User: Fold these one by one.
Assistant:
Number 1:
Amino acid sequence: AAYRNENITVVVVNNTNFGMTGGQMSLTTMEGQKTSTSIYGRDCSVTGYPLRFPEMVAREFPNAAYAARGTVTSPAKINQLKGYIKNGLMAQMNHEGYSVIEVLSPCPVNWGLTPIKAMERIENELVPYYPLGEFKKREVK
């Protein structure tokens, strides 16, 4: 869809695993992170490194309309994320092309953490690898 610059908005939830199906390793599982299919931790020399999708869209698909990443770790960051989602939807409604918004989200059950510790993990481990912000801003027309 990004390659064809389809006029859609994709909201991707990144909780670093396939949580709804048992906690398997995903394209965003962190190096060393244990999952049901990487019981010794993700070995990036075998599986490659976690994918930063919004950055890839911004870099590889110049006609894409918008690419951003936010998180749900605080009310302020949720409000920022709402703005990113609004930008993606506005791009779609204005027929500007493909938009992607990634959401860093907790997975307390599969991470084996309390909800508070899961939010701390996002801030301390995920945000440094998956920086927040807009990677491709909409062009003002």
Number 2:
Amino acid sequence: MATPAASSAPLIEKHTIGYVPPEDRHGKVRDLFTLWFGGNIAPLPIVTGALGVQLFHLNLLWGIVAILVGHLVGGVLMALHSAQGPQMGIPQMIQSRAQFGSLGALLVVLIAGVMYIGFFASNIVLAGKSLHGVVDSVPVPVGIVIGAVGSGVIGIIGYRFIHVLNRIGTWVLGIGIVVGFGYIFTHIQTDDFLTRGSFNLSGWLATVSLAALWQIAFAPYVSDYSRYLPADVKVSSTFWTTYLGSALGSSLAFIFGAVAVLATPVGMDTMDAVKLATGSIGPLMLVLFLLSVISHNALNLYGAVLSLITLVQTFAYRWIPTAKSRAVISIIVLLACCFAAVGASKDFIGHFVDMVLVLLVVLVPWTAINLIDFYAIHKGKYDIQSIFQVDGGIYGRYNPQALLAYAIGIAVQIPFMNTPLYVGPVSAHINGADLSWLVGLLVTSPLYFWLANRDTSYRRRMMGGKLASSL
């Protein structure tokens, strides 16, 4: 249900990392479906989905199965984070101080910021290539700058505008991708569309991991886009609208990439394959994807900026960041990413995938700790004031239990890793299959639960009535 604040909410967001008070809450739960559905039908998930058949040599059937399994599993974790937003009313990364302490959370916040800067830079490369594909006279570097500026404007305006654009995008892109599927299936240009590739366990698991990671990668900022909803919104409603929107939208985009690549000759660049496979409607599809990547990329810029503000505010605790602060930091990030992307656009997407595979190792333990702490330890009840105190209030500067579980959660994944930087012995023994993220979840979750429940001094503080769910 919409609140009275919905109609009076300013278009340019005034909040940054601070608590959103009840009088500023607005929006509808169904906006979460459109945000994550529309936001996931974009070039980057299309390119990532194509890797299942391009890089891991799966056929269409097993590629689709792997994509669905990965998104359906990873989407559960992502949506559980989203459901925290209305109850907490603060961004996800600053909420991590309640699990790791005011200083202990810095590493996780830094990792999230780096990841979203990487996402942003990769997407502006795709925007540049898409614009060049639509208008040949526009060089890719110029297209990169145009894409970055467009995303920057949306990100600076902020929360409400992002939701509005994705409500529109859900209908436009949803219809567009269905039409695109229809055209490809009726104009297949290869004889091995259904037979190219085959099942192989390592490739199947790698594709599952990429899809699951796509969902888990949203975890550090997914609740940023639900934190303005009224606090009495049902957790189940927030969960299901987020889950269905993200799992469905991203699965469609991943599968679209795989289908386009299989419908065209071997060796083509994914976006070139999309243009060729969609024939006469190809230019229109590229225009839609160009608009999509600009809109979707605003989320990455927004998340990166909130992470950077959280880092700075940890030390400059008297600083009260404003909308102007958010705009200035957004421009700085935008310029830096443009410079990096223009200089490395040829190999940027490959480097991005390498980075994502490495970041998976450090994101998974954080996800496990955050969810166990929120749903099993504190049951959504936190002292918001302590989260913003320089000494961490009742949460302290460091939480040894969380940091220990986090370190062990990273360490146990190493033998199961398969990244360009390192291949673990277990992964090498099973033909390169990467099971690190699954091991990290299965070890970190019960370990943190056990360690947190043994912290008797912390439980005494809880019993002393110092915890509250809001200001």
